[in-house]
């Protein structure tokens, strides 16, 4: 299996985000990498939605 065709900068960022060693990332099958990237994106979007759904606590609604 040949290594992934991604830039070194992208590889480092993905390895950090997925919390896997760089060597393992470079030899990871593409379908597994895509699955892990989808899981990461879903987790990020869920955390963003959670932050947006929390009411503002800085007193912006106090003037109503």
From TrEMBL:
Pfam families: YycC
Superkingdom, taxonomy of origin: Bacteria
InterPro entries on file: Cro/C1-type_HTH, YycC
Domain HTH cro/C1-type: 6-25
PROSITE patterns associated with the record: HTH_CROC1 (PS50943)
Sequence segments annotated as region (Disordered): 41-64
Comp. bias intervals (Polar residues): 54-64
Protein name: YycC family protein
Organism expressing this protein natively: Brevibacillus composti
